[in-house]
Specification:
The chain has 498 residues and is mainly alpha-helical. The protein contains 21 helices and no strands. Helix 2 packs across helix 11 and helix 19 runs antiparallel to helix 20. The protein is globular. It starts with a helix and ends with a helix.
Length: 498
C-alpha cells in the first residue's frame, strides 16, 4: 500500500490544484460570463463526445489494465502492446464517428423543441470523439506504468486553464459562441497531444509487434473480454448520461446549465478517488491475475475506507455551506435551483467512491461478464425514474433518479464482488467513520449562523475540519493516515528543533 499512498498523494495534490482552478472557474467565471444555456450547450457537447468516445475505444481502457501484465516485458518492448493499444481505438473511431453523424436526424427530433441550439453545433462532437478516445487511452497507459501525476496534471490543470482562457475570451467578447465551442474542442486536442508526448517520452511506445506472441487462447480471451466491455460500455455510458440528456430534451439547455454547475459542486467529492483508484488498479489487476484474492480484498478495504474518508469530509463541508456558496457566487439566485441536485448527486458520489473499486475487481477477474446481467435493467430504471421525477421535481428529480440508479447499481455490483471474488470493503474503520460524520452533522446544527456568508462558511469549515481531523486521529480510523500524521509531526519537530 506504500506505493499507493505515495503516488496518490502526488496525484491528489495536483488534482486539488486543478479542482481549485475548476472551482474558481465554475463558481466565479462561468456563472458570471456564461448564460446557463451556454453552460448546458458545452456540457452536452462534451458528454455526447465522451459517450461515443467510450464506445469507440472498444474496451481499450479497461483491457489495458487487465491484459498489460500479460504483455509486460521491457526488453521486448512489451511485445507490441502499444501498437495494439493504438490500433483498436482507431478502428472504433472508424465505426462510431460515422454512426454519430448518421444519428443526427433522430436526435434532432429529440432535442429540436427544447434544445435546438445543440443541433446547430452537432458536428463539433465528431472530432471530439476521436480526441477524447485517445486522451483516455494515453492516460491509462501512463497509469499502468505507475505514472499518474502527469495525467492528473494534464486533465485537472492544463485542460482547466485552457478552458478558463476560452471562457474569458468569450466573456469579454473576443470570440463568439461558435468560438466558444471551437475553443472547447481544441482544448481537448491540446490535452491529447500533451499526453501523447508525455507517454512517448516516459514509456515504451514502440510500434513493433509480434503477431505470434498473441496466442489463440490469449486472443480469444481479449476478444471475449472486449466484446463484453463494449456492450457494458454502451449500457454504462447511456446510464451515466441519462440525467443530463433527459433534462436537455425535456427542460432545455438552461436547466441543463444549472444542473451542470450543481453537479460540478458534488463531483468534487470523487476527485481524490481518481488518483487512489488509478494507482491501485494495476496492483489489483496483478493480484487477480495470480488468483490472489486476499491481497485484492485487503486493497479493496483500504481503498474504500480512504475514499469514503476524504469524500465524506468534502460532502459534509459542502452541504453544510451550500447556502453560503450560492450567496457568494455571481447570479447565485439563478443557480440556487440546483441546491438539491448537490445533495442527491453528492450522496450518489459517496456510494460510488465507497464501492466503485469493487467494480474494478470484477472487471479484472474472470467474472467480468456479470456486469452485463444488470446494466440494461438499470438503464430501464434510470429512464423510468427520470421520466417520472423530472416533470415533478425538475432537475432535482433527475438528481434523485441518478442517486436511485447508483444505489441499485452499486448494490448489485457489490453482491457479485462478495460472491465471486470474496471482496468486502467494510471494516471497523468504516463504522467509526460513519459515526464521525454523523457527529459532525450534529455539531454543525449547533453552530451560530453569521449573516456574512463568507465569514460563516470559513468558520464552519475550520470548526468541522478541525474536529473531524481530531476525531479521525483519536479513533484510529485509518492506520495509514495516523502513521502519516505522526511522520509529518516528527519532521516538524525536527525542523523546529534545529
Amino acid at each position: 500500500m506504500g506505493i499507493v499512498i505515495r503516488q496518490s498523494i502526488k496525484g491528489t495534490i495536483i488534482t486539488y490544484v486543478g479542482a481549485f482552478i475548476g472551482f474558481l472557474t465554475t463558481m466565479f467565471v462561468i456563472t458570471k460570463f456564461l448564460q446557463p444555456e451556454d453552460i448546458g450547450l458545452t456540457k452536452v457537447i462534451l458528454e455526447a463526445g465522451m459517450m461515443f468516445a467510450v464506445l469507440a475505444q472498444l474496451g481499450t481502457s479497461s483491457s489495458v489494465m487487465r491484459f498489460f501484465p500479460y504483455f509486460r516485458d521491457e526488453k521486448k518492448k512489451h511485445n507490441g502492446f502499444f501498437f495494439y493499444m493504438l490500433l483498436v481505438p482507431f478502428i472504433g473511431c472508424l465505426l462510431f464517428i460515422p454512426l454519430y453523424i448518421f444519428l443526427k436526424e433522430p436526435l434532432t427530433l429529440l432535442f429540436a423543441e427544447k434544445s435546438s441550439l445543440f443541433i446547430s453545433y452537432y458536428y463539433w462532437v465528431a472530432p471530439l470523439i476521436f480526441l477524447l478516445a485517445y486522451l483516455s487511452v494515453f492516460e491509462v497507459y501512463s497509469n499502468v506504468n505507475m505514472r499518474i501525476a502527469a495525467p492528473r496534471l494534464n486533465r485537472e490543470v492544463i485542460i482547466r486553464l485552457c478552458l478558463l482562457t476560452v471562457y474569458l475570451l468569450y466573456g469579454y467578447h473576443f470570440i463568439t459562441r461558435s468560438g466558444l465551442v471551437a475553443g472547447y474542442v481544441i482544448t481537448y486536442g491540446v490535452a491529447m497531444v500533451c499526453m501523447f508526448f508525455y507517454v512517448f517520452k516516459t514509456s515504451i511506445t514502440s510500434l513493433q509487434h509480434n503477431v505470434s506472441y498473441v496466442t489463440k487462447p490469449l486472443r480469444k480471451d481479449i476478444l471475449r473480454y472486449s466484446s463484453y466491455l463494449i456492450i457494458g460500455a454502451l449500457g454504462g455510458t447511456v446510464l451515466g448520461k441519462l440525467d443530463l440528456f433527459m433534462i436537455t430534451s425535456q427542460l432545455g439547455l438552461s436547466h441543463a446549465g444549472i444542473f451542470t454547475v450543481a453537479f460540478y459542486m458534488a463531483a468534487v467529492i470523487e476527485i481524490p478517488s481518481r488518483s487512489i483508484s488509478s494507482i491501485s488498479a494495476p496492483i489489483a489487476a496483478d493480484a487477480l491475475k495470480r488468483g490472489d484474492f486476499a491481497t485484492a480484498n485487503a486493497l479493496y478495504k483500504k481503498v474504500s475506507l480512504h475514499q469514503l474518508l476524504i469524500g465524506g469530509l468534502i460532502f459534509i463541508l459542502l452541504w453544510t455551506n451550500i447556502d453560503n456558496i450560492f450567496a457568494i457566487i455571481p447570479n447565485g439566485a439563478v443557480y440556487a435551483d440546483g441546491k438539491w441536485v448537490v445533495f442527491f448527486i453528492g450522496m450518489a458520489k459517496l456510494i460510488e467512491v465507497t464501492l466503485n473499486f469493487g467494480g474494478m475487481l470484477i472487471s479484472f477477474s474472470k467474472y467480468y461478464y456479470w456486469s452485463l446481467y444488470f446494466v440494461f435493467f438499470l438503464i430501464g430504471i434510470g429512464i423510468v425514474t427520470n421520466y417520472l421525477l423530472i416533470p415533478v421535481w425538475g432537475i432535482a428529480g433527475a438528481a434523485l433518479a441518478t442517486a436511485i440508479s447508483c444505489l441499485l447499481s452499486c448494490s448489485a455490483q457489490q453482491w457479485v464482488v462478495l460472491k465471486k471474488v470474496r471482496g468486502n470493503p467494510y471494516s471497523l474503520g468504516t463504522l467509526k467513520l460513519i459515526a464521525v460524520f454523523l457527529l459532525l452533522i450534529g455539531i454543525n446544527c449547533l453552530l451560530f449562523k453569521f449573516n456574512n456568508p463568507l465569514i460563516d462558511g470559513i468558520i464552519r469549515c475550520v470548526v468541522l475540519a478541525t474536529v473531524g481531523a481530531g476525531l479521525l486521529y483519536v479513533l484510529k480510523v485509518s492506520d495509514e493516515v495516523n502513521s502519516t500524521v505522526r511522520a509529518l509531526w516528527k519532521k516538524v519537530k525536527e525542523l523546529f528543533g534545529k
